[in-house]
Amino acid sequence: MHSHPGKPHLLCATLLCTALLAACGGSSGDDSNASDPTDPPKASEITIKRDKYGTPHIYAEDTYSLFYGMGYAVAEDRLFQWEMIKRMARGTTAEALGADYIEADKAARKAYDAKTLQQQIDELPKADRDILVGWADGYNKRLQEVLAAPDSLMPKQFSDFGIAPTPISALDLVAAYFRGSLANFADSNSEVANLGLLSALQQRHGEQTGKNIFDQLRWKNDPASPTSIKESDITNVALGQPRQAGTSLASWTNDLATWAKTTVAALLPKGASQAPTKLVQRVSPEVINETLAAEMENYGGTGPDYFPRASNTWLLNGDRVEEGQAALYIGPQYGNNNPTNAFGVGLHGAGYNAVGTSHWGFPMIMWGANDKIGWGVTVGFGDTVDIFQLQINPNNPMQYRHNGGWRNLTKRTETISVKGADDVSVEFLSSHYGQIDSFDEAQGVAYARGRTWVGQEVSTLIAWSKMNKAQNWQEYLEQGSKIAASLNWYYVDADNNIGAAYLGAFVEKPSGHDFRLPLPGDGSADWLGALPFSKQPKVLNPESGEIINWNNKVSASWDNADYQFWGRAHHVNVINNAVNRKEKLTLEEFHETNEIVSHTEVNFNYFKPLLAEASQALAEGDPLKPVYEVLADWDGYSHPNAETGVYDSAAYTIFRTWLPKLVEAALRDDLPDAYWAQYRNASAASTSIGVNVALNALLGEEATVAQNYDFLNGESRNDVINRVMADSVQDLTARFGHATLNDWLSPLIPHTFGVRAIGGVTVNTADQAVSLPAEMARGTANHMVTFKGNQLDYADVIAPGQSGFVAPDGSASPHYQDQLKLYGDFKLKPGSLNDVQAVSTQTLNVER
């Protein structure tokens, strides 16, 4: 055991980093970075042009040099933030910040084995590996410059935290992508929590009644839930590789089906198709608490409402736009931070000519365009993770039953260094399904996490990067077929086509199993093989001329996942209504849709007719009548007023007081205490699971989710609505005193860019959080893509700004917050491909 008695002095740590960089020649520090010794050294020139907002445009002739330039630019803008992202991903935060981060480091290291990621990197073709190696080498080049001139170049946050920057490797980069993007958005699962909920309900209400309640709380499929692709529009496209000249379509399709099946299915555990054995139905409280605590750490809350689900997009074809141009607008939402999680960049050369933004600065443009197509992505919420319940051998806790015998768990031991304390040795256990998430000793079982995308983490990153070079729908889907994460991909091109594809590595499962619950891990319910890409929903040029998504269901035929419950009430309908406010929109109106969506209360329209009905049931002269009249006249828009600091709508205040009370009145008495927090949320920005359950309870027989249990306890819905409204008015009267009804105006909720990112890791000092006056339901960044006369017209905004750099003297980069007002005013800044107006230019010379 080693001890770290105190903070390292910044200069000492800087000298240590310099030595580390010198030892690895300034490279990324893993074997995958080594050049072929038989190759002669090759010199190349890299140019970085920055525009008036500090967006770097990288110019280079080969892939390695292009991404070398990107890594260098990322280190210029986000050195401290990437130090913390890397530590979050590799589980070394405690080494820098102390014992408070030990649990976060354990969670990071449990999520993957670094050796498997390194193996994937090593197996890449050199041309693909150059993307990762070049990025890391460029980052480390800038790090060398910072270490050589810390008095002017070292970001102030390093001295504030008493740490120093360290080199990055290709493995570090991939781990950051795994933990910060792939696993954050594609590793959600609630099967153990769902089993615990079902068990608690059955213990309290009896087996059948408990099951009825569970089916209403965690429904399988609501046919009234809005979809982004109509079944009649789905395009059956089997595309994994480009069709070669002289190959028949039938032969090509057959080859692709075989390719998809063998490429993906080879990675999956196989099982027979017999009926799965029964699960152990009880879940001990300790396991439930551990499961919910992990959700809280990763997502800031527990249950379906807290899994990332706030990215939105709308696309119209040329027939729906006054100017006759197809257009894409997208707002990816992956957290509001300072510095922003978005990194603006242009990539020019080596087959790339694209502009847009990347999550954190990963080596790809995730939302953007090239000279032929534009693209974007929202999280797909597909079922790509399963939990397997393992029966542990009572005589040997390192074995579990499988296929009639006992199979061994494997153990991996790692050491976590802790600043100011002894090292911590941690053991991680795995089954052939995947990592062990938890043990339920009282029930004699363990829970293992099986990911359909395991082994495809690096190939997913590479395919996404190479998609940036696609020139048409077929090339776009070719790379999309290799994406293992569950995503909705969107497409627009210079020929006025719009499209969408549902991506991910999906598997066939044995029939008879309830997908909301864990799978038996005894071999009776193993996956049966990969779902071919041809069976995943896709659409090109839908009949409606529109594609709209706000993390809603992709198509009617896809059930909910175990952790995501799409219902009748869904915030995507706010966009549907806004986009269809006119038969055709001008491009300006298309853009203005973002402001309408951002300030519209997403739940109100579902309850408006029920509120009107409840009002009609009241006697004339009832004191609630004027309250209902205010609500009847409301359009659902919150009307934020930055000058007065309030929402200029009493209806907003009334409804926002009434809705949470309604959810509590309907559900609180029937839910176990451990789960009530998952249903009490009634956000104005996104429809929640609790609101959907309460709405269905009010609808009764009119609900499209069967209501076999009466949450209203025999009370009529009008009586419930009016009783809750009377309680709300009583609270509001006490709150506002003798103010008239129209003066019941709520203070604005600020829109804050904080300083804590994934897993609670700090990416800035606490005093650097910034806010805009009013909360907005919109993307972390916003992008708009159209083509005018086949010429790209691209614009975006990332707030607070491109750079996170704060100098040692406390002065910030001019691009630290220069997009904050643009964002707050719903404006975009223009981007460019071929005519970048450079404010500064750098040249890097690289020999490799």
TrEMBL record:
Residues of the signal peptide: 1-22
Pfam families: Penicil_amidase
Record bears the keyword Transmembrane: no
Source organism, top-level taxon: Bacteria
The entry's keywords: Hydrolase, Signal, Zymogen
InterPro entries: Ntn_hydrolases_N (IPR029055), Pen/GL7ACA/AHL_acylase (IPR014395), Penicillin_amidase_A-knob (IPR043147), Penicillin_amidase_dom1 (IPR023343), Penicillin_amidase_N_B-knob (IPR043146), S45 (IPR002692)
Family: Belongs to the peptidase S45 family.
Protein name, entry field: Penicillin acylase family protein
Organism: Mesopusillimonas faecipullorum
